[in-house]
UniProtKB/TrEMBL annotation:
<dbReference type="InterPro" id="IPR001401">
    <property type="entry name" value="Dynamin_GTPase"/>
</dbReference>
<dbReference type="GO" id="GO:0005874">
    <property type="term" value="C:microtubule"/>
</dbReference>
<keyword id="KW-0378">Hydrolase</keyword>
<dbReference type="GO" id="GO:0048312">
    <property type="term" value="P:intracellular distribution of mitochondria"/>
</dbReference>
<dbReference type="InterPro" id="IPR027417">
    <property type="entry name" value="P-loop_NTPase"/>
</dbReference>
<dbReference type="InterPro" id="IPR022812">
    <property type="entry name" value="Dynamin"/>
</dbReference>
<dbReference type="GO" id="GO:0005739">
    <property type="term" value="C:mitochondrion"/>
</dbReference>
<dbReference type="GO" id="GO:0016559">
    <property type="term" value="P:peroxisome fission"/>
</dbReference>
<dbReference type="GO" id="GO:0008017">
    <property type="term" value="F:microtubule binding"/>
</dbReference>
<feature type="domain" description="GED">
    <location>
        <begin position="676"/>
        <end position="770"/>
    </location>
</feature>
<feature type="compositionally biased region" description="Polar residues">
    <location>
        <begin position="1"/>
        <end position="12"/>
    </location>
</feature>
<dbReference type="Pfam" id="PF00350">
    <property type="entry name" value="Dynamin_N"/>
</dbReference>
<dbReference type="GO" id="GO:0016020">
    <property type="term" value="C:membrane"/>
</dbReference>
<dbReference type="InterPro" id="IPR020850">
    <property type="entry name" value="GED_dom"/>
</dbReference>
<dbReference type="InterPro" id="IPR000375">
    <property type="entry name" value="Dynamin_stalk"/>
</dbReference>
<dbReference type="GO" id="GO:0006897">
    <property type="term" value="P:endocytosis"/>
</dbReference>
<feature type="region of interest" description="Disordered">
    <location>
        <begin position="439"/>
        <end position="479"/>
    </location>
</feature>
Amino acid sequence: MMSDSDSYNSEPSEPHSHGVGLSNSDLSSNRRNLLDIINRLHTTGVQVDMDLPQIAVVGQQSAGKSSLIESISGITLPRASGTCTRCPTECKLTRSPKPWQCTVSLRFITDPNGQPLGQPRIDRFGDTITEPSLVEERVRRAQRAILNPTVIYKTFLTGDDEDFHDELTLTFSTNTVILDISGPDVEDLAFCDLPGIIATASGTSKTSDIELIRSLVTSYIKKPSCLILLTVACETDFENQGAHELAKQHDPQGTRTVGVLTKPDRISTGDEENWISFIRNIREPLTNNWFCVKQPNSSSLKQGISWREARAQEDEFFSMTAPWCELDPSYQKYLRTRNLVARLSIILSDLIAKRLPEIQEELQNMLDATEKQLQGLPKPPSGEPFGEINGMMHKFATDLQSRMFGVANKDGREGLLQQIHPVHEEFRKAIRNTAPDFRPYEHRERRGKTFEKPDFLAHEEDDGDGDVLSGSESTDSGDSESRIIYIDQVLQYATRSRTRELPGNFPFVVKQAMISECTQAWERPARQLCSQVYSLVHAEVKAAVIEHFESYGQGILAQTLKVILNDHVKQCYESAQRMISWQINLEKLAFTLNTHYLADYKDKFLSFYKGYRDKERGAALMKAIQTLASIGGVTDDFSKVTGLNKVMEGLSEVGVHGIKPADLPKILPADEFSPALDIMADVRAYFQVAYKRFVDNIPLAIDAELVLAVAGDTLLATIFSGTGLTGPNNMKICKELAQEHPGIAGRREELHKKLDRLSNASQELLRVRA
């Protein structure tokens, strides 16, 4: 490592000559403009978000990076403390007709704890420097400010330079020192000098610094638009220099790596050809070749060699020293600093020209994506949380009322009532299936019997899917046997229930008992319906809370409302259950004022039951009558129906006239089960009337006491009271509820900073085009 005195002799009389001099006429203004565009983009900090073309100088410690940078920039960097290799140093070199000047800035991308800032902070470090001899001390102070992030950076601008010699909070940092150098003869180039890679920790370095430096270097060179300026010292075996391995890892084809051999004067005797093979691009070939430069040694620096003298010595070395001077002219262009810088300028400007259209498109895409991400975040807290929360509560109540009242399907999602309708239908079927299954024949006659459903019921209550009332009968067998009530069983029960009634009369309790046996089965389906609707309402309320409040604040308001509304919905559910109990009690005793429908159903069922029995009892007679009907009544063929003919003739002989064949079933003996038929018809008719009102009343009660009541007049009062917003501490409560989740707040801040960077970069591009 060189001492403090090991630096170029500054020449104040000719500050403009401290550069390679690429700003000559053969370097087009277009290249300068391209470099200026990228420099402007770098000042916005947008390189954090996207891949901008740049040159990164990498190499092992003591590989000659600092000397190379000095030869390119014409300035002297601090050396003795080693701080020059402990943080990135960006050099932006720009040709300008104005006198030579240099400004030093600090770019912080992490806070004192090493956490990302999101938006880079750039602080100007001191006044503009107009004398190159003052740069070294300013840079040294700037690097110490970077390595002591807990100390105000301005502290390092004043005081004795030696006072800060050993005061370092960090050994390395990812924050950057920025040098903006301009002047008449300054080359148009920009590059970043990265800390030298170390193999082992020693001195003030820590073991963790090894990985920190590799990670820092990797963060630069992994980007496809980063040109890797790889410095390799000829005094050390190539295989022992890990910088090349790292560069090759991220640029395996060598398309964006420019190799630079340093310290060629220290090559061991007999080993020259190994290094010459790099210049010939035979060993570790690169697309842009290897270069070799010669910088002043320690002795020359101590003697105060000037920059011009250093370049003259470099020319002399490569012109007079074998085997360099013996290289073909085609390889001579890869020797000397000026050739290296000229090539770097061309490569960088070409890369910028190629990337610029892509950068414009990427910027716009990233702007759109960032704005979309911001829009996807919850709204930021309001300055008036009480008014904001009050408005949200009212909006929520209005939405919940709409949901409970019923809304059409939206976005393919069924509304609450659409989900309740199938449950209602299941309830209707369950109640209907409790209908008494009367059979107009005796239990002993059941084998082989078939009992068709009444046509009027099939037409009236068909489900549309082929499934009809549970009262529809088929062959007696299996599970249906336990539900069937035979006519003899009805008569036996009625007879056993008689008390003081006159013969042929039966007490009302018989019909009431049969009716009660049906209505008692209604409670379970009714309560099950209420529970199912409760589950659907509970889920709908929860979904509404999530939609309106889940992303608000830290989620405390949403969680509080879930608890409050869970209790509110449960109370409505319990009220609905009490109403069901009331409805069940109403059905314990048979009653209806709907006498018209009751009478109509009784007539239909009685005719149906009697018709079945008459058909069974007078089967031959009924068959004859049906045959007569099939031939069109009394005709010439009437004599063919011999039995029926004899009956009709016999009635005429005894003076009974006006009797039609269809009237003959009336002369059959009275049916001993007629009272049972009447009971069966009455009970079955009443069931039809009662069940139809019940399957309406229960859903109506649940709708009124549960569904609509949830979003009723007490809703707002319930949630305002439950959250404490009506109390004396309502403002404090609202402020606490509105506090945003730190993660969301941090994400919003990060996106806003990113949006600012992208917007500033976009404006820079627009300004350039204008």
